[in-house]
Write a structure and sequence with these properties.
Elements (H helix, E strand, L loop, with lengths): L20 H31 L7 H36 L15 H6 L7 H15 L2
Amino acid sequence: MSLPTVPHDYRPSADEPFMNPVQLAYFQAKLQTWKDELLESSSETIHHLKEENLSAAEMGDRATLETGHALELRTKDRVRKLISKIDAALRRIEDESYGYCEHTDEPIELARLEARPIATMTLEAQEKHEKNEKLHRDD
């Protein structure tokens, strides 16, 4: 699908048709920029891990380095999962299902998509889902 160019000062509005081509292009650009920033940050983390020397002379230094590396690797895993969600959102833009709740097929509020462009549910559906999850987790 070919989307139009988004004007620089454009912001989606409830006064226009929901998920029209300009809105889709806006969210596609927003998601792609986010993904690019995450990938750049991730490559810096990998570079940093390669540069550090784990053969620190003192045990305390080595433990500190290893703890730092473990934290960086956990962060990298979270970023990997986030990038996967961004890719899924980009695929939904391609198939024109982006912006609609995966449970109710209702439009997801524009403010929610602005704040969390990877959202797959309306706020109400998300709250219901989390409440059900909590009930089952407490069993």
